[in-house]
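Hi again,

Forgot to attach this to my earlier email, sorry! This is the prediction with 6R9 bound. I've pasted everything inline since the attachment limit keeps bouncing my files.
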Amino acid sequence: MEVEAEQTRNLIHHSHKYAPSASFVEQANLKSFEEYKRLYDESINSPETFWGRVASELHWFNPWSQVLDSSDKPFFKWFVGAQTNLAYNCLDRHLELHGDKIALIYEGEPGDRLTYTYRQLHEETCKFANTLLHLGVRKGDRVAIYLPLVAESVISILAVARIGAIHNVIFGGFAVDSIKGRILDSTAKLIITSDGGYRRGRVIPLKDLVDEGVDGCPSVEKILVIRRHPDRQLPCKMQEGRDVWYHEVSQGKSLSHEAQHMDAEDMLFLLYTSGTTGSPKGIVHTTGGYMVGAYLTCKIVFDLKPHDIYWCTADVGWITGHTYVVYGPLLNATTVVIFEGAPDWPDKARFWDIIERYSVSVFYTAPTAIRTFMKWGDEFPNSKNLSSLRLLGSVGEPINPEAWLWYRTVIGHDNCPIVDTWWQTETGSILITPIPGVTLTKPGSATLPFFGIEPAVLTETGEVTDYGSLAIKKPWPSMLRGIYGNQERYKQGYWGMWEGKYYYTSDGALTDEDGYFWIIGRLDDIVNVAGHRVSTAELEGVVLEHHSVAESAFIGIHHDIKGQGLIAFIILRQGNVGSPKLKQEINEIIGKKLGKFELPEKIVFVNDLPKTRSGKIMRRLLRDVAEGRPLGNTTTLADPSVIDHIVEEFKLS
Ligand code: 6R9
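Structure tokens for the complex follow:
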């Protein structure tokens, strides 16, 4: 982290400020720093007044008796006693004014296209909801969703929320063990999947992966299978009694359905994310507070208006997809674009083609994608008309100034504010971000807190500093309510660090003289590979399943495109010799069990790992080796000679 901190200090020193254009400010939902400051101060000093007023812009079946209940910290409750429904607010609420407006534009990788008006999306969601009820799903049941990014991803999420069940979306890039772990932990009753999806022209056999994943999962009663193509089937097996085709079972189901009244604190979804232990944790989000956070951040940070055509490139399997593909934009009656495929299929102008075709006005993507586009060259975006764009967003990892400036110039034509939004699966919605019509941005900084958020950079003992651990002082409506089945871990892991006074983010950060925040990355053993949180502990557990592996250490190192890439140091069992074939087998295990995006850049076979006398692996030293730096302090090593051998092996691998 020291290296990143030093680099960031340099950035701060050389940084320029960029102001939004007068024409952007004129049309913005929030127009001046004074207005931001006034609202921000109110949100901190009188959170109940502030959030109560925001929540009133949405529909509630019953009002709240209290905005925030802090009586049982850190188990905060928001909008106590109120009842609402997310799908109702995303769809029914708009029917009168926006019923014939396009809600969803879907483009499949092979080029198939569909659009849904708010009225049509409402009908499809009701039909799906009625089908789920027919299959025995009830309020509170867990439903896993493992789909490509097709319209049914959005529809099924909304349908589950509509009947008050709990969705657990599993990213389509996850493989068998990742699926199984999530289904077992959440005891899902039903799984929604499809016969397949497309990635770079290949069919991904999602149903086959689910079949393997549910093996040994007794909670699963039904698998609901959607045909990727409306009129033909991709090859997959169906098990009698368990598996049902959506197009068959949904036939004749009603296109209307009365949304279930949900308590504000009823669970809305579970989303698993990597933690410091081997198994992912199920982050719990509830109904009312999450809805208010998703709604307001979209309105203010993306400056959304009903006439916007908004495209967030995240998959719905990540939190960004939940809050900023599905819920947030629909709560704001915006038109949402989704795209199933890869940015270089069939050619490297595919994204820009989509922006041109649908006149996308707000575009939200990740730094790793921006760096990839930069590498491909300006001719691809330059070949399309991107003049519809008015605002650009970035999320998932720190964005380097080169990528930020390229994004601004080549994609935004120096005409679009960039919002670099910092947040996490746990936070539910954006916490640190520029406000596009207000904030002077500095490339590489997520800038200032959103309403209601009081961040601080702290030392281990809780003193405020300008370089340390990023912490959040106050609860906020869309915060996680816990870890599924493990509230003690929630309390200790997120609120234990400074005796319950702050939420611990696990990120390191710096502040500058303007009070801007510069996030530098994770302080724990999570590696951020192309914006995806990957747990080194989970990888280390999985490679042990290869009979030749005795022990391993995975680390993250700088990667020009992905931000971070993984390096695996592996000790083999006695009698085994490292070989290309063995590397391939280890990679196959990772790809098949966890997912291909978790593959290491490099595998290094070593005799030993650098450990402290208490047996803890010194990952910092491994990182020094892999990034080619002089080694830091080695005096705490149990056996300092170990590291010389590792340096040699790394060079040879
Ligand atoms: C939304 C999302 C969370 C972790 C987070 C941090 C990193 C996300 C960032 C950023 C710097 C940004 N992160 N946005 N770092 N600048 N704008 O990505 O959630 O998948 O849970 O990851 O991602 O390290 O702690 P999630």
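The longest strand covers residues 549-559. The first helix runs from residue 2 to 14.

That should be everything now.

G.
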